[in-house]
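User: I'm writing a tutorial on reading structure tokens. Could you give me a worked example: one chain, its sequence, then its tokens, then a sentence or two explaining what the tokens reveal?
Assistant: Sure. Here is the example chain.
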Amino acid sequence: MQPEQMEKAELFVSNTLILKKPFKWQHPIMRRLAALLYVVENKSIDPETIQQSNDLMKQHTKRFSAFRGPSSFNIAAMLSLTTDQLTRLQHTIQVHDLMKEIKFRNSDYLVMAAYQIAAQVSPDQFQHTVGRAKSFYDRMKKEHPFLTGHDDYIFTAMLALSNLEVDTAVERMEQLYRELKPMFSAKNSVQTLSQILVIGDGRAEVSERLLALSEAFRARDHRMDKTNTLPSLALFALLPSEIDLLADQVVETYDWLRTQKGFGAWSIHKQELLLFSSALTAIQHVESLQNDILTTSMSTTITNIIIAQQAAMAAAVAGAAAATAASSTQS
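And here are its predicted structure tokens:
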């Protein structure tokens, strides 16, 4: 493994282990996702600041607020990386309320989507951006009424934050969806994949590159065409890096992580470990892009997509945890 990649992987493992004791009641996936958020910023994890952020949410939200739900830990982790936690939280609550006013349904996905908007635009643009998000969502819902749901909120927010025109972007998403649908069985993830490619301004040849990436991983006995990992293929398709290099680096990272405490076969399943190995590889390549002024915009976009993907994963885990808790209460 290259030194830069090893540094990222070591930081990820260290951050994950640091979180285990102070947040032992948190789902392990949530701790890993928080650890990765700090790797994106090249920082060692700070449990005390995360706890302070969590306490801040409790002080400024009601008891049954979505901000106190299963996703609260990852919101706290994101808040802990800001310089003004209270202002960011207040802005996120403001965006969340605006989204609910126009019939976005309350969920962990909505909290994460609100955070994405609050983090990336000024308050005077909240209303406009939320309106764009609803326009994107409604157009997507019209095209795929059964596929489009709460789990699309985060990337709907990302689309709203772009400069893309709604109808043109959705038409491109539909074109990509039709092209890629026959190739992959995880239809809902194909929709997410098409959203990422459009956000990243994927060119005409992006579908061909994505399929080549899928085959490269399959040849290495690491399939990336499953529900959780398919969106990572979209990230790699957007990167101007050689396909075999990307695949080799993901596998190298995966193999190294497997040898580390807390990352063995009994602790984390293959698809989840592939997800984190892919994210660490993508982060490293994004940092390389940032050295080229011509690709600064692209690297920023891809970084935001990585964070959004992790937020979506956190919301999915949070939703599953909430459903399990409700089922236990009823039985």
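What the tokens reveal: Confidence is low (pLDDT under 50) at residues 325-331. The CA atoms of residues 102 and 134 lie 8 Å apart.
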